[in-house]
Amino acid sequence: MKTVVYLDVLLGVNFIIGWFLLRAAGRLTSASPSAWRMWAGSAAAALSTLILLAPPLPLWAQTAARLGSALVIVAVAFGYGGLRSFLRRTVWYFVLNLLLAGVVCLALYWFGPGGVETNNMVIYIDLSPQVLILSVLLVWLALRLMELVFAPPSTAPLWMELEYDGKKLRLPALGDTGCRLKDPLTGQGVVLVWLEAAKELLGAGRMQAARAYLAGEVPEDAAGLRLVPCGTAAGPALLPAFGGVEMRLRQGHRALRRRRVTMALSPHPFQPGDHPALAGADWLEQLQESC
Predict the structure, then answer these.
(1) Mean pLDDT (whole number) for 281-291
(2) I need a labelling partner for 125 at 20 to 30 A (CA). Which of 68, 166, 187, 200 fits?
(3) What is the DSSP letter of 54?
(4) Domain regions of the chain by residue span
(5) What number does CATH give the domain 158-289?
């Protein structure tokens, strides 16, 4: 007896499954794609299952279709990023699909066989969406447990990406858990950047205003500059700052993005290592909580 295939269930459940598998593949390969890429990759994974409804294809065509769809899904979700990285992510995506298939078979054993429809290397199992999603969650939790138990502490470098007034800048950053500098106007954390490293981001007018203030002069044109109080070894001080900066922090597979952040400017790079940017405790905590 033929199983009735519900198109909304087929697409909806496989969209969610694709999202979890792509996230897991990203974690295992230290990739952190943007949200829109993840949604697009999940949609591609869901659409690839529509081949179930096509007439039966020859074995070589089925194999080519599945391999091609996997390559497209990984490319949509992660981009290319070089042949080696692309192949690693594709292989992990395949492995995770196989692991999920094993978990689903176990779920079949527990909850009963139900109706099964196979065609063109796609399996449709007449299980409730709850059982299928539970299977995906079990795979995800198993991966997270393995990561917590076996993964060494992160030694990946910290990068800060800044965008302001249409200009972008990427800098290696120092993480300082003892720094909790906040903007008194917004109450949010502040990112610190060495003034000379911010030339490309600020432009001539803002650089001149910030340099004049740090030299003890009154800027002729403030150009949006404001002041952020901070404590130093020499006592309290005021740092020139600009608001409305878009900031991204990246470390390994973790990524944090915040809009309208205040960027304070320091006259010196940050020790140890003469880093041109510094992320304080608030940003580091949020980065650790991100996936």
Answers:
(1) 76
(2) 68
(3) S
(4) 7-150, 158-289
(5) 2.40.70.10
